[in-house]
TrEMBL record:
It comes from Brevibacillus reuszeri. This is Uncharacterized protein. It comes from the Bacteria.
Amino acid sequence: MRNKNGYLIIFGLLVVVLVILFATDIIGSPFRLQETQSTNINEVTNTVEKIKNEVKIGLTMNEMKELYGSNYIVVNDNGDLENGNDEHWKYRLLGDANYKPSSADHEIDEEGILSGKAGVELFIGWKDEKITLFTISYLGTDKHIHFYSNVHGNVEESIIK
């Protein structure tokens, strides 16, 4: 009888240890990562559709701040963007808040998007405090980087990688 109770106690302790290890993500994280990735893909898809529906050419800076807040980067394009805009902004949505891209702000962060550290990049060009162009870069369900652009009302979509 003592051996049976001893085995039950050891079994109970093993169960408790396994529960703690799974709960703290020490083990089992590959399963959670897969669930998170599919959730993130859905979040990315929903966010991209939301942007396409809400952001329009001619929207003002104040209207944009009302929609997406003031957590944007004022982009220094180093003269690369010869489009006549006064200013450029970039919103980084759904990504890892601690992630710092190695690419310049006016470039698409391909490494971050492919790794999942960057979710959706929304780039905006301003002239006289109104949107003249915007682009959206994101990882599609096909695991390729998608690029949506609306420049002066001309919409194009392509796959980068």
